[in-house]
# Entry
Amino acid sequence: MIYLNNAATSYPKPGVVKEAYLNALEALPSGQFRSAGVSDNSDIFGLCRKRLGEILGVSESDRIYFASGSTEGLNAVISGLGIRSEQVITTVTEHNSVLRPLYNLPQIKGEPVLLPCDKDGVVSPELFEREAKKGKARALILNHCSNVTGAIQDAAAFGEIAKRYGLLFILDVSQSAGCMEVDADGWNVSALAFTGHKSLMGVQGTGGYYVRGDIPFKPLKYGGTGYDSSRIVYEDEDYEYEVGTQNAAGIVALSAALEWIKEQGINDIVEKEHELTDYFINGLLSVKGVRIFGQELKARGPVVSFNLESFSPSDLAYILQNSYGIVTRAGLHCTPLIHDHIGSGEKGTLRVSFSYFSSKDDAAAVITALKELVG
Amino acid sequence: MKIIDRRKSLEACTEAGWDAFDLLTDEPLSDEDIESLRQVEGSFLYLKQLKKPFFKIENHNYIIKGVKGDPFFRFAVHRDHVGEIEKLVKALS
# Structure
């Protein structure tokens, strides 16, 4: 089986991640502030936070909190900042992990301002500035890298505008963390959400969020933390954000993955995936009846969406998987609003997404299958 | 060919308002099995030139698709017409 659905979950994982995960399961359980059973004094949570800080460009790594992934992270951030959806500027490139909280979370729900994108999935910072100037908004939520077209937004430009107009800047780095530079501090990011199981090479069920230290922020969830258990009410708003037992084994695996990424070097990862993506797009262009979404992109993540004349995306995915053993993904990709703007309609696209471990042979296998299909 | 079980597909088309089921058969689908599906109302497509031949039947309410040699095929149906699956299973049994 050839796996090219890395934008959903990366596979395979580096050997050190598997090893760390297994070792964590075999070791005595660790828990923050919970004394029983810790086999040594190493702070696995703090170490992972520090490594995340390095890769996300966050200097206040103690303000990075673990969650089950970006979705929980985004819900925590969106609900905790004291903003209402009407006060939010966001984009049509957002994933449902942003859109659904904005439209449904009881305490904030409403209609955000939606910035359009061009046919490649790129959102214009100038359009954002035009909305910011109106003075009604309090926050921008931006998907750094589109999970549909791979378009990378100019986060630095958006951050600069947000700062100028006094808006919070919330960045979703689900698709970008681990496969391109992220510089939260340098881009004036107020809060961000990340997931561990995509390009960060961790396991499913890991991820989290960061909120800058000077921003008041209420937790999404309350519960046991193992710290100062006699306190029930947070009188001074000195909240705790990680409640319940944490996914220690997953965090150990994520920490190992972050170290692996550091060893490979983010630039080398970018270069390898970029070369593979270019190779694949060039191959796609030789297939009769293909339409690539985001073909003209100058800044792109390791994601390529396309359609083939006469075949629905879901048929293509079915054929590739069941006739050729190639796993891709079809449909709207949980990003329903972008399709009207890029021209992929109600059936969406077929998406091929690469990881550091994908090869030119994998990409060539897709091209060969598509050529056989169109005759 | 007999349908022996059905499972909600993990690759549901639910994002676009559709549900999908995999209908499990008692043996791998043969050419004859696939040709026999022509009795089902709708357009019939059979791509025999592929590494593993693919077929598809599509009508207003649902889509059937599968690959020769697999012991299952996919039934995707709009949520308003989920009852069609019972009619199909009955027709094929």
User: Anything to note?
Assistant: Residues 12 and 20 of chain B are 5 Å apart (CA to CA). Residues 3-92 of chain B form one domain. The longest strand of chain B covers residues 18-25.
